[in-house]
Design brief:
This is Endonuclease/exonuclease/phosphatase domain-containing protein. It comes from Furculomyces boomerangus. This protein has 117 residues and is of the alpha+beta class. The chain has a single domain (9-109), classed as Deoxyribonuclease I, Chain A (4-Layer Sandwich). It is 17% helix and 31% strand. It has three helices and seven strands; from the N terminus they run E-H-E-H-E-E-H-E-E-E. The strands form two sheets. The protein has a four-stranded mixed sheet with strand order 1-2-4-3. It has a three-stranded antiparallel sheet with strand order 5-6-7, with no helix packed on it. Strand 6 (96-101) and strand 7 (104-109) form a beta hairpin. The mean pLDDT is 91.
């Protein structure tokens, strides 16, 4: 098991995960800038493509697709390939992702402005 002193975690509200935004996120791992990146409001664009990527860990649960407009929400967790091999577990709900790595729990959440209190 690898040990890490500091985890570099990013969170980006992408407002629709377009191909250019996806490339920017993946470049962060290629350039060794982050260990984990949460992306919010992916709207599940090209989701089947993204889940096959080596950096993909887990995404939030999907809502039924609206008749008009894009899919709602979409929280995705990506990890460096080095860190990914040390993730013990990952779980998600519609608005949260929780993972266990190096004996620690990391919780990411995105609550859209349209969510009722």
């Amino acid at each position: 098991m690898t040990t890490v002193k500091t985890l570099r975690i990013g969170f980006w509200n992408v407002q629709g995960l377009s191909p250019s935004k996806w490339d920017t996120v993946i470049q962060q791992f290629d350039q060794n800038k982050y260990d984990l990146i949460f992306t919010a409001e992916t709207w599940f664009i090209d989701h089947q493509y993204h889940i096959q990527h080596p950096n993909f860990v887990i995404s939030s649960h999907r809502f039924p697709r609206p008749i008009i407009g894009h899919e709602q929400s979409g929280l995705m967790l990506l990890a460096s390939t080095e860190l990914k091999s040390n993730i013990n577990s990952a779980q998600s709900t519609s608005y949260t992702i929780t993972l266990s790595v190096f004996g620690k729990t990391i919780f990411g959440a995105y609550f859209p402005p349209t969510l009722s209190p």
